[in-house]
């Protein structure tokens, strides 16, 4: 009896609060929420597509209730500008789930920090120290090493007598580049050797990453209904164990770098070295240094591989684009050397192919939600303090009001009109915009363009045998990042002299 009274009271309070919100504020329209759960059971798994469908019914700004939390989704460029530029400061906080709060030590990093003095300081470190053109250029040999290692690996696998003419799983090779590249840039370590064998620290690193994903996914409904959390308590011990394990590995690597620096007197360009030498100058706690290093790992590892896989799927689906990109590469780079990042300015079409892939397939289609730290108005509607605001960059990049033939993969559109993709043009936002724009956007663009360029310069690509280009599955998996639902399998055919398929190894 007591429990039923308790649950009835909670239901009454919930409904009363909803009614109060609706009477006090002019909220955006949206699907009708159910008591307690809101719209949670109505949301289809691929959320950005679901929200886009709802926007066709209710308009470009909609209210969606995740349990008792109001989420506002905007789906056109004018509203995105209101969120990310005109009301940027009031909408620059972060909604932290319980797992995000644990992983980030309550926002001591950059990604999950609320907007305030800490965020401004850490952002300054990223902009003025870590992601400068000078440092990105200094780290270029690492990127080129890993991309040529990928080329060598594909060449070796597709030219063995048993495999000639057979397809490869493209994601496998892209994932290796992304993994090795990010661990070397951040930690100065290539955890996987030339034979593809992973060392002990690398095994531990991978175990920590997969355990973090598992822990993050373990909390469901209670995340959205705060007063239900007593029924779904956080496994404090598991999170504490995970945090200690992550810190132990990171501190061991930090200590190795400190010892090496003291021995040689030289500071290397890796992010771990940079942060250790800047720690005092910027008054960064160990939690913040560790949080920043892991922010770079999580933000940079999957997104690049995802972007290149989508780009390759589109190029294989559109042979005209592949031919045009290869003609440009043959003209500029030729067949007696390999592509380098220094060639990019002379390869405008290749850059447009990368940009068009990021338009149609942004790796984080909804960006991370922005949380209102004050009551604001967007599109004439009230956004109460504490609400979450999502920008559906996937929908904006396919909006027929601002894009001609939006669903067509046509890189030429960016030769006809130069559209910025680093947060200044609100039609194209693969890296976000405003105060929370991705700090590593240029690094992501460089690596995506380099991987794509090498794959197209070294190989001609055709679909899996028996699959017509127009039959390729171009749907997405559910989740925060948009993996292809069916991993790309394609047939590579070498198109350059065999001596150009060697890894250009560099030790740094």
UniProtKB/TrEMBL annotation:
Belongs to the cytochrome P450 family. CDD domains: CYP98. It comes from Nelumbo nucifera. GO terms for cellular component: membrane. One of its GO terms (molecular function) is heme binding. Heme binds at residue 438. This is Cytochrome P450 98A2-like. It is found in: Membrane. Keywords: Heme, Iron, Membrane, Metal-binding, Monooxygenase, Oxidoreductase, Transmembrane, Transmembrane helix. Gene3D superfamilies: Cytochrome P450. It comes from the Eukaryota.
